[in-house]
Design a protein that fits this description.
Blueprint: E1 6-13, H1 18-21, H2 35-41, H3 45-50, E2 53-58, H4 62-70, E3 77-79, H5 96-100, H6 119-133, E4 138-144, H7 146-156, E5 173-180, E6 183-192
Parallel strand pairs: 1-4, 2-3, 2-4
Antiparallel strand pairs: 1-5, 5-6
């Protein structure tokens, strides 16, 4: 039997939060969207009106769930624990600059997070998600988080997880994965949820 191939995978990074706006690492802390994040998430509505999705998955953290509900798909969500953000351990809630005051040259891609997840563990979670996606058909939507989605895109195209450093991803963005014939590919990356003139005041993209 031929392997099922999804049509396209729509990846939505949740809307702006206070910590993301300020560059603070937000892993498992369950904080809500800002007013701007909620307004930006509303621009997803036409996508979910126009595209027929066979499955819609979300991280169980409220910033992802709130984004999905504002997109009008709350009743169709399937929660997936593997879509949670990286567990930053002792670095939760602080910025890269603050971490580098303790560890020179620190990055999430090259250094550990004490009492948090190792990059290998995040990669394993992403591999489980990829395997699940490749068992499905139709268009799939995923609501998740910045660093996890950067690992996921690497594993989708069979790159090591630390290549996520090359895939910047702001809040309130839409990315699309798919295939070139039968080869996993990236169709769109880090696209803002609005394409017209800035109807919502966009700040500096919140990229941890």
């Amino acid at each position: 039997m031929a392997e099922a191939i999804p049509d396209q995978i729509y990846l939505i990074r949740h809307g702006e939060t206070e910590w993301a706006r300020d560059g603070r690492h937000t892993g498992r802390t369950d904080i809500p969207l800002t007013d701007t994040g909620r307004e930006q998430a509303g621009f997803l509505l036409p996508i979910f009106d126009d595209v027929k999705f066979s499955r819609i998955f979300s991280s169980p953290l409220q910033r992802a769930l709130e984004t999905a509900k504002l997109a009008g798909v709350g009743s169709r969500l399937e929660l997936e624990n593997d879509l949670k953000e990286w567990d930053y351990g002792d670095y939760e809630g602080i910025t890269t600059q603050q971490i580098r005051e303790r560890v020179a040259g620190w990055t999430i891609w090259t250094h550990p997070c004490p009492n948090g997840e190792r990059i290998e563990e995040v990669s394993q979670r992403a591999d489980r998600v990829v395997a699940k996606l490749r068992s499905l058909e139709g268009h799939i939507a995923i609501f998740s988080h910045g660093h996890f989605l950067r690992v996921l895109v690497c594993r989708w195209i069979d790159l090591p997880a630390d290549n996520g450093r090359h895939f910047l991803l702001g809040t309130s963005t839409l990315s699309i994965l798919g295939y070139e014939k039968d080869v996993p590919a990236i169709k769109t990356w880090n696209g803002p949820l609005i394409t017209a003139a800035c109807a919502v005041p966009w700040r500096r993209p919140s990229v941890p």
